Amino acid sequence: MEIPRHWRLKKQRYGLVGEVCPHCDYKIFPPRDVCPNCGDEAKDLFTFSGKGQVYSFTTIYEAPTGYDSSAPYTVALVKLDEGPIITAQLTDVEGSSVEIGMPVEMVTRKMRDDGDERGILVYSYKFRPSLLVPQAHHPAG
Amino acid sequence: MTDVIIAGIGQTEVGEHWDISLRDLAYAAIREAIRDSGRLRPQALYVGNMLAPNLSNQAHLGVLLADHCGLTGIEAVTVEAAGASGGAALRQGYIAVKSGMVDAVLVVGVEKFTDQVGAGVDSALATTTDSDFEAIQGITAAGQAALIAKRYIYENKVPANGFAGFALTAHANGAGNPNAMFRKAIKPEAYAKADMVSDPLNMFDIAPVADGAAALILTRADLLPHDYHHPLVKIAGSASSVDTLALHDRHDPLGFVAARVAVEQALQKAGITLEQVDFFEYHDAFSIYAALALETAGFAARGEGWKLAADGSIAPKGRIPCATMGGLKARGFPGGAAGVYQAVEAATQLRGGAGRCQVAGAKTGMIESLGGPASTAVVHILRTD
Ligand SMILES: [Zn+2]
Q1: Measured between CA atoms, how close is A136 to chain B, in angstroms?
Q2: Is residue A141 part of a domain?
C-alpha cells in the first residue's frame, strides 16, 4: 500500500530535506516550490540541521489504524532552528517531562506498520530531547 | 438584490443510527425540508459530506441521494471541505440561487460515522490533515486541537478547567433540543474528572462524532408558495476563506486567520456590525476552537475567548449566546452535516420555534463552519425582519 508515496518522500523523511528561497533566503519545510514568505519560486534544496525546540505537544491515547499499537505516544510541533515548524513525534521521552521550549533533535525511527499483506514499515523523522545542549532551555517563538 | 430565503428545514436526531443507512438518513432530512418548504421542488442538490468514501466506501453522493429521493434529472454534486463541508455546501446553494442560475436548491449535509468503529474512525478523520506531513506522524484531529490548546494555555495562563464553560453551556442547551445526541446538563465536577483523550483535552473538550443528516431548501422570496406560513429567514451574508492545510505551516498557529477573514467578509456583505449579531453558532468540535472562534470573530480579545465561557457570556441570556441548541458538543458532530445543522438551528431560532432553547427576540444569527483547525472557514449571517 502506498509504496510509491513513501519512496517519493524519503528525502524529507530520512534527511529533512526542504528548500531555501533564492530570493529572500526563507527556509521551507516541507518543500512546496513556492516561497510562503515572498511568493516567488523556490526550488533550491536545503538540508535542515534537525535541531529545534518544542513549540507545543500532546500525548495521543486514541490513535489511528497503524499507530494504535504504539499508543500512547507524544506528538509535537517542533520549531526548527532555521525557522519552520513541523509536526513530529517525540521519542525517548518516556518518564521525562516534556516542556514547551525544550531543545530537541532529529532521529530516524519506525513510524507505523502498514497493516496490509506486504507488511511495509514506514520510517521517518522523530525528535528526541537534545543530547548536545542539555542546558539551553528557553521558550520557543 | 434578490434575497435568498431558507424556505424549508429538516433534520434527523443526531446519534448512533446503527440501523439506518447513509441514504435513508439523508432522505429523512430531505423529506422533512421539502415538506416544510411547502413542497418546493429543487432543481439542484448540493451534498455536504466529509468522509463517506472512507467510512462507507461510497463516493458519488450527489446522484446516490438524488436517485434515492426520487429526484433523478436534477443537478447534484458533493461539496467536501472536511468539517466545513456542510457550510461549504450551503454556500454553493446560496451562490446558485443568489446568482439567479437556479430557482430552488436542496442542500443536505449527511454523515454516517457508525459504518466504522474505533481506530478506523480516527484514521478517516486524520485524512483531513496533511497526509504526507501530519497524519504520517500519527496525529489525529483531536491531537491537532490539543497542540493548539497546549500552546494557548501556555501563552495565556489559562487555569485548570479553564475551558469547562464550553461543555457546560453546550450540554445545558442540548437538554432542550429533541434532536441533540446529549440532552442532559453536566456538572463542573464531571468535567474536572473526565478522562484525558489528547492532553490537555479531555472527553468533554471533544465533540462526539455521530450519524446525522440535515437539509435546507433555498429559494427566492418571489418563488415561495402562496400559503407559505413561516416567518421569512434570509441569508444576509455568506463568505468563505482557507488557510494553510497543515497547522505547522502557519506563522501563528493560534491565529485562525481564515475564520477571522470569513466573519469580516460575511458581516460586510450583510451590511451589519458584530454588535447586531444576537447569537453565534460556532464550530465547537473542540473547546479550544470555540475559544478561538470567539476571539477571531471579535467577541473577545486575543487569549480571552475562554473567559466568555467561564463568565456566562455565551449562555442563552448572556452577551452573545452560543451553541444555543447544544452545538457540536451536545447536539453531536455529524461531520459534513454539522454546518447544515447550524443553519437549520439558526433558522429555527429566527422563526421563534426553538422551544426551551429559544434566544429571546433573536433577529440575527451567525453560523461558522470549520474544516480542520480553521483550515477552511465558512460563515453565514441569517436574519429575519
Ligand atoms: Zn522567498
Answers
A1: 19
A2: no
CA distance B133 to B158: 30
Long-range contacts of residues B301-307, Cβ cutoff 8 Å, at least 24 apart: B302/B254, B303/B152, B303/B155, B303/B156, B304/B156, B306/B156, B306/B158, B306/B162, B306/B163, B306/B165, B306/B166
How many CA atoms does the CB half-sphere of A102 hold within 13 Å? 19
Residue A139 lies in a domain: no
| Predicted complex ipTM | 0.94
Task: Give me the CATH code for the B4-118+209-223 domain, please.
Answer: 3.40.47.10
Picking from A15, A82, A96, A19, the residue whose alpha carbon sits closest to that of residue A53 is A82
The arrangement of secondary structure in B122-206+237-384, i.e. its CATH architecture, is 3-Layer(aba) Sandwich (3.40)
Domain presence at residue A138: no
Q: Which domain holds residue A45?
A: 3-129
Rounded CA-CA distance B345/B243 in Å is: 27
**Record: contact A58-B151, CB cut-off 8 A:** no
In a domain, A58, yes or no: yes
β-pair type (A103-113, A121-129) = antiparallel
A80: CA distance to ligand 1 center in Å?
Answer: 18
pLDDT in tens, chain B (385 residues): 689 999 999 999 999 999 999 999 999 999 999 999 999 999 999 999 999 999 999 999 999 999 999 999 999 999 999 999 999 999 999 999 999 999 999 999 999 999 998 888 988 999 999 999 999 999 999 999 999 999 999 999 999 999 999 999 999 999 999 999 999 999 999 999 999 999 999 999 999 999 999 999 999 999 999 999 999 999 999 999 999 999 999 999 999 999 999 999 999 999 999 999 999 999 999 999 999 999 999 999 999 999 999 999 999 999 999 999 999 999 999 999 999 999 999 999 999 999 999 999 999 999 999 999 999 999 999 999 9
Domains B4-118+209-223 and B122-206+237-384 fall in the same CATH topology: yes
Chain A stretch 99-128, residues whose beta carbon is closer than 8 A to a beta carbon of chain B: 100, 111-112, 122, 124
Distance from CA of A132 to the nearest CA of B (A): 24
Cβ–Cβ under 8 Å, residues B140 and A62: yes
The number of domains in chain A is: 1
- Which CATH number is A20's domain given? 2.40.50.840
Would you call A88 and B137 a contact, using CB atoms and an 8 Å cutoff?
yes
How far does B299 lie from chain A, in Å, by closest CA?
Answer: 26
